[in-house]
Amino acid sequence: MPEILDVNSLLANQYEPKRQYRWIIEINGIDAFTARTASRPKGSFGETVIDFINAKWFLAGKYTPDPIDITFNDPIAPSAAQKVRDWINLCYEAETGRAGYASFYKKDIKLKLLDGPGAVVEQWTMKGAWLQNIDFGPLDYSVEDPVQINCTMRYDRSFLEF
């Protein structure tokens, strides 16, 4: 009698989920190892309403990407705070009041999800990213956590590569 293949069992044995802790982010000027948390891109579509007699038709409108949040640990050296401050200065220098051109402060970001051996299994590229909100974080005598920097980054568009 021929053996019956159990397809579900075969697939279950090959199933390997992407893990939240296997990723790396590339931002020119900031050391990748300082990144602590990040979020993958998300966004939403506006809507276009077409009124016709007694009904409404709905069409997808413009796509708007939502900002992403990235948290960095701030080591003594190399200082992530200094590198974030350098990026801020490309947009606005508090000492002089000068503002920079978008071509100076907009960067491309690559967020790479990795498999167990370290191969890239998913890559997001966010084009035209800039620092929208920066929080250099609290200090507290009662905790042992590393100092962190929380950033919200706005970007123009993103795409997924496999």
Describe the 3D structure.
This protein has 162 residues and is mainly beta. It has a single domain (16-161), classed as Pnp Oxidase, Chain A (Roll). 15% of the residues lie in helices and 44% in strands. It has 3 helices and 9 strands, in the order αβββββααββββ. Strands 1, 2, 5, 6, 7, 8 and 9 form a 7-stranded antiparallel sheet that branches. Strands 3-4 form a two-stranded antiparallel ribbon. A hairpin with a 5-residue loop joins strand 6 (107-114) and strand 7 (120-135). The radius of gyration is 22 Å and the shape is flat. The two termini are 42 Å apart. 12% of the residues are buried. The model has no long low-confidence stretch (mean pLDDT 93).
Structural topology:
Layout (H helix, E strand, L loop, with lengths): L6 H8 L8 E5 L7 E4 L4 E10 L2 E11 L2 E6 L6 H12 L10 H4 L1 E8 L5 E16 L12 E7 L2 E5 L1
Antiparallel strand pairs: 1-6, 2-5, 3-4, 5-8, 6-7, 7-8, 7-9
How is the main sheet built? 7 strands, antiparallel
> What CATH architecture do you see?
Roll
- What is the gyration radius calculated from CA atoms? 22 Å
Class derived from helix and strand content: mainly beta
Shape, please? Answer: flat
Q: Count of helical segments?
A: 3
